[in-house]
Design brief:
This protein has 475 residues and is mostly helical. The chain has two domains: 211 residues, no CATH class; 252 residues, no CATH class. Helices cover 76% and strands 1% of the residues. Helix 5 runs antiparallel to helix 11, helix 7 packs parallel to helix 22 and helix 9 packs antiparallel against helix 21.
């Protein structure tokens, strides 16, 4: 009787998730495609939240408890939402300030097309290691690398995969990263033991990723721009902008602030102001040209922060690169995050997340299946709760005592939490990380998914180590 009741509870807990996945499959696969994030996916998340809430209320959960949990989830993501909005302003001001164009201009000279993709991984990894933030990395050097790669004729989905792979390598290993500190705290080990233990799976994952990107880069090197074509692009940029290395003071300053653990909201705000200063100092003619009212400088500067701005160009590649939607362009992603928090809040308040993770724990009969169960639990939380922090915290709490009783060192758990909870979050379109990176890089999650090699390989590497008994430390 108890077994039947448990099975029924699990089926009820899974029902909203099944509804969500089926609706998204139909919505993206058959109706809207890449345009699904414009609003239809958000509606589906809200519908799925209503389904979860309805089942929960029918089983005794109070409506007030569900609403309170949704409000708490939204409150927890407020910082991420403000960062996302400010990143929109950063992209616009760095465009009119000549910062991103200068990065593209000089980057075309410095980066070889054949080795561009592995170079993009390494650059992103170094910046992320120094800042501890994959979000800040993609919003700064990531945007520039996207522009350089697109100019070289490399598909944007592949470039985005390279940038994300490097950014999450650094985010995963940096002592400054919030997830790198959170995972050992949940597992009960110290930060540097956790980092050293992660190297066993993280470094091979990066090496394999670099090899794959090098092979792909060889494929696209023949179609890359030659020296004359690169000179044409650079001349077009120089005709439109006052290209000067002085503008790099702004991104260097932002990265320095973040590496010193300055709050991201403050650092990005400084970046926006720096972009405006560079625009006024070096791009005054462009600001006047783009403005149409009585105060063109003010109008263009303001519009670069909040709205659509496009730099005229006869070159189709540059015309696409030199445009921004500012803060307003991030509103769809903000809506997506709020909708995802509604679904995650309803699932958690009704006890469905706990039911699903408990069922996963019950499947762990040996060390390999225990680690596998942890990976699955992190993945489920990334899909259902739509937040990488919950994907680390909830499994961390649930599995800590199990690992302890099995005689496993806590760094086994902390490494597994990061190898799944941290790196797979960016692969889920409605997860805060997936929504953010898709908006900032301008590439749909479904497009860059298969090229985010590091993020795909990391959990597989952990499974290989688990099932072959490699570097599984005992207490």
């Amino acid at each position: 009787m108890a077994q039947k009741k448990h099975t029924l509870q699990l089926l009820l807990a899974l029902s909203p998730l099944v509804v969500l996945m089926l609706l998204l499959w139909f919505n993206v696969g058959y109706v809207y495609g890449d345009d699904a994030l414009s609003g239809s996916n958000q509606v589906i998340l809200l519908v799925s939240a209503l389904v979860a809430g309805g089942i929960g209320v029918a089983n005794g959960t109070k409506v007030e408890a569900i609403l309170d949990k949704i409000k708490a989830n939204v409150k927890d993501t407020a910082s991420a939402i403000y960062i996302l909005i400010l990143i929109g302003g950063l992209a616009g001001t760095w465009l009119v300030g000549g910062i991103v164009p200068a990065m593209i201009y000089y980057g075309l000279d410095l980066i070889n097309a054949t080795f561009f993709l592995p170079t993009a991984v390494i650059i992103s990894a170094l910046v992320s290691l120094s800042t501890g933030s994959s979000w800040s990395t993609t919003a700064t050097v990531g945007i520039a690398l996207m522009g350089i790669g697109q100019t070289m004729g490399i598909p944007v989905a592949i470039v985005a995969g390279a940038v994300i792979s490097g950014a999450y390598f650094g985010d995963k290993l940096s002592p400054l990263s919030d997830t790198t500190n959170l995972a050992p705290a949940m597992a009960g080990t110290d930060l540097f033991t956790h980092i050293r233990y992660m190297l066993y799976t993280t470094v091979p994952s990066l090496v394999i990723s670099l090899i794959l990107f090098t092979i792909i880069g060889l494929r696209y090197s023949n179609g890359a721009l030659n020296a004359e074509e690169i000179a044409v692009v650079q001349n077009l940029i120089a005709e439109t902008f006052n290209v000067t290395p002085w503008v790099f003071l702004v991104p260097v300053g932002v990265i320095a602030l973040i590496s010193q653990k300055t709050d991201a909201l403050v650092a990005i705000s400084v970046g926006i102001l720096g972009g405006l200063v560079m625009a006024l100092l070096f791009q005054g003619n462009l600001l006047t040209q783009l403005g149409s009212g009585e105060y063109p400088l003010y109008e263009t500067a303001m519009r670069s922060v909040y709205g659509d701005i496009s730099i005229p160009s006869d070159n189709p590649i540059l015309a696409d690169l030199l445009s921004s939607s500012g803060m307003s362009g991030m509103m769809g992603t903000v809506w997506l995050i709020l909708s995802a928090m509604a679904f995650g809040g309803a699932m958690e308040a009704c006890g469905f997340l706990a039911t699903i993770t408990t069922a996963i724990v019950s499947l762990a009969k040996n060390t390999a299946s225990l680690i596998t169960s942890t990976l699955v639990a992190c993945g489920v939380l990334n899909v259902t709760a739509s937040d990488q922090y919950l994907a680390i915290v909830v499994p961390g709490r649930m599995f800590k005592d199990v690992y302890d009783k099995r005689g496993l060192a806590p760094e086994n758990l902390s490494r597994t939490l990061e190898d799944s909870g941290t790196v797979t979050s960016v692969l889920i379109p409605w997860n805060t990380c997936g929504a953010y990176q898709s908006s900032v890089l301008g590439v749909a999650t479904g497009d860059y998914f298969m090229y985010a090699f590091f993020n795909l390989i990391s959990p597989v590497m952990t499974l290989i180590y688990a099932w072959f008994g490699i570097k599984i430390r005992k207490k």
